[in-house]
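Troubleshooting: if your tokenizer reports a length mismatch, compare against these two reference records.
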Amino acid sequence: MLLALLFLSLFLSLSSAYGDTTIQEEYCDVVIIGGSTASLAAALTAAQVAKDTQKDLKICFTDPTDWPGGQMTASGVSAIDFGRYNSKPENNPLNFRILLAHMHGNPGKCWVSVKCYEPNWLVSTWVMPHLEQHKNLNLFLKTVAIKAKRDQNGKITSITAVQRTPKEGVKEWDHLLSSTVGDWYNPDDSALFTKKVIEFKAPVFIEGTEFGDVLLTSQIGVRQGVETPFENSTTFDSTCGQACTVPYYISLDKYPPKQHVPPGSGVGAPFHWQHPSTVPGVPEYVYYYTYRRSHVPDYRDAHTYTLALGDIAQMNWGGGNDFDQGYLFESLEDAKRDVKEGKWTGGLNRVEMSGAEQRAYGSYHWYKAQTPSNWTNHVALNYTLPGTGTGLSKMPYLRGTRRGLYGVNNFVLTYDAFKPVHSRTYKGIHVGEHFHDTVALGDYNDDIHRLNASVCTTPKYTYQHKTTPYYIPFRALTHSEVPNLLLIGKTMSQTFHANAATRLHPSEWSSGVAGGVAAVLMRVHNLTTLELYNNITMLQQRLKMPDVQQPLQWTW
């Protein structure tokens, strides 16, 4: 009788918050709320380090899609954006080098990168096998965070999430994201999904989402959009940020299938080539097709600037499917209100999300119309590489998101740490500011895709573009208000201008590696972020060990 009463009491306590929905409790040592490239790196690294530390730690990893990896996979940005120096293997951590080696050269024979590939292939042959080989890693796909609880010391004690399962006969990815993303965050069953509510409890949490779910639901200091009027300002234009893109893939098929591709729209600036072809004799339709080409039928015989039947290319370029007519996030004020009212759904402006999707379809038709008659009848929208029935990527390509307000000791990473300064050199090469708490490297120019001037204008200081190979400090991976939270990827405590350089694949991955190692050390030694910062050599030494091999200094 007593056991029955205890069970009834437990059931009522678990189901009270969400009506009749029973909450599944998951006790973990480290919880990574993911969705980004950085979160995949953190999950793989934390699981490996926990194993090698010979600690029986449970690592929990969520992703809103079924393709973990963020921009590398679900967002369809299947061309690694290297700078000049981080394309060298020695300047990347071990697990990223292993991933790159798996690609065997440049599979797509593209020219924007030395690594262009098929995202569906990467997920099935590398991402999922590597996640599944870690027995201490618990994977929760199609899962999003909706609520965070904190104690009197500011620590996060639990994060509540919704996991969805498509109902029988439902093909989730046949629906556009703008029409379904709100449903993802609703704990109630819907026409498309059955839902499970999970409460993750752990001593250490990592924010690695693409929408800043943990930052917002924790109700802590957040940056969104651009700092104005100066980079060190504490005021933001939260509806002025980076333009987004919804990538897609075009095939050159010998016998194209009959397709009904939605007409889309050309809302905003007319479609146009971002700039003329810079290769003599190569027309723009070839120049842009080979730009991010992901697949060639015979790699050995492929030439960079030639087309062949069987080619498949990723489309992601300014003047095409870049959407500059609206900001993808609702205002910070509206987002905070949603959280307070218990209505958090990712903080997306779904009207603008729909506009981005329609812009993508419109650009497909525009590109097809630019090809000469001998190619036009071979152009087709490819549905296999993005893994959807819509032909669009599962997630948008977000060049920025919500960011931590300040790290420990009120630190924020700024563009000043990256820009060329005459006195900052390492072995004869100009570098960024070298921090005593450096935990990762990065190398890319300040890459801002601006919204149309009719939407907003960014301050003058954002027009400084030059950067040097730079360093990412541990403080950027922390939040001053939450001693057991780590921020990785685009959610780091950094400015809009700094994020424009750190948001690319290799630096995102490296920040995730640092976060994964830090999380395990915090758990094993019962440390806060400030305590780990005060013992930073412990983290730096662990990052250098053979199972991680995270470089903290450049190799030229």
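Reference record two:
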Amino acid sequence: MTSPSIQHFRPKLAKEMKYVFVSGGVCSSLGKGVTTSSVGALLRAKGYRVTAIKIDPYINIDAGLMSPYEHGEVFVLDDGGEADLDLGNYERMMNLSLTRDNNITTGKIYSAVINKERRGDYLGRTVQVVPHITAEIIRWVDSVAQTATDGTDLSPHVTVVELGGTVGDIESAAFLEAIRQFKFNLPPHSMCFVHCTYIPIMSGQKTKPTQHTVKALQSVGIQPDILVARCEEEVNDSTKSKISNQCNIHREKVISAHNVPNLFHFIQMLEDQKMFKILNDVLKLNELSPFGEDDPTSSVPKPALVPCLKTLGDWNEYANTVDVARNAAPVKIAFVGKYNKGGEDAYVSVVKSLEHSAVEVGRKLEVVWINSTDLQPAETPEEGDESLYENAIKSMKECHGIFVPGGFGDRGIEGKVKAAQLAREWKKPYFGVCLGMQVAIIDYARNVLGLSDATSEEFDTSKESENHVIKYMPEIPKEQMGANMRLGARWVELERPDSKVFKLYGGAKKITERHRHRYEFNIDYYDRYESAGMIFTGKDESKERMDVIEIPDHPFYLAVQYHPEFKSRPGAPSPPFLGFVHAAANPTSVGDRLDSCLKEGPSVLYTQL
């Protein structure tokens, strides 16, 4: 019998919600995020309203201060939340606009419980992992699950929840216990548990790792309903039968997640293995009203958010389009970054945006990674340093376009400034994001305006420069770093109809994009830049903050203070990324692309906040 204490702290739950929990075992990087996103996309394709939650067991409050080398990029949400990169995958694949509450961390849960204890909410009781921490996890998941994130005002039908980490990690224990409790607080057919596992090939397909990870789950009271088995080749019937026998699961509920030409084929792979039928059997989804039916209670017109890939036919067509593009002529983009050693995860949304755009223009994306430190030879170069510089210059010159992403700190900054300078001088397509805009401004000040000591206040800690063309934003306090920036969706006014950015956004006079920065252009220098040929074609509503720069007499030289990569979607690439990649791939027809974007008109993804 449940004790009165535990029952008291179990929050009331919404009974009509369906949940799909996704966990992983054996090792990391099995594709939990891909599975979660693809299951969500499949449910969306079938007509159900979906939202997503990522649980990260680390103690950090959020991902904002985590190293890109260790954790990958920080994904910024409309509400300013700094989240795990998997939320970017959810937004792209499910066409959602999530909030900071859709990313749960151990730090957030414990902080909430401790704050309640300090207020006296627990009435003097001893606060423990069970029931108080687990109850807070349940309350948080249930609360977020009721919030629409698809642009409608209708509650979701299904919430897909990914549990980060690997089953067996001590950090995940409280979350697994909360999930176990959660299931028995819900009506039957309300929860489906999907577990991702690994099938190595060593003289055949081996099932022992899968057997052990399922037993680890069973030991904490959770029996998976579906196993997604990652393997280089298709999991054969005999392997599925062995897993079924040893793991207490029907053979048809063992899903093979084998290699595909591109990940967009995975949704159809799930459908071919009857994933939706299995989900329907477990959750009784057929008893819910599909999204396509009219709901008189909704005040938001359908379709929501932005025209996107919705049906399985749409996804299959796009997957095939990606295959065709990858066999086309390459478009080579020089990627001048600071965190290249962190792998693609450090810039995952940027790379996805470049890929979306390359597919749109029918070209194979080839990213040429260039460390920004290689572009700044030392004053007394060590052996090999000069060759690194020369090789970096040579590699950039061979590329069709030069891209400079965001970043923090002064390491490699002079290399980024050099990249902006060479793109300008070589008349090679250039696109800069956040810091990529700031280094373009610094280059222009030094090499066009004649301000040789121009720099950013961020890099001039000794206060030697008299020309801080980039300054610290005055309203940002310097005492705290976490969540202490200009964050989230902000309006940007595009006031010049003849500008490239105005046309790329379909003629929208006002757009919303996501920001993440502490430094901005020093408006005291505005007139000098404008008169010298660098123009500011996007500003905030006060006209005091510059968000977009262009050089009109350059074939394509564009930089933005915001982060457009966070809103790019498969089949609906970010406008400035699309313009840049088109300019790199087809430099003689940039005007045609701009006219085409202008004719299509603005997307609601950028005109609604």
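Descriptive notes for reference record two:
- The chain is about 35% helix and 20% strand.
- The chain has a mean pLDDT of 90.
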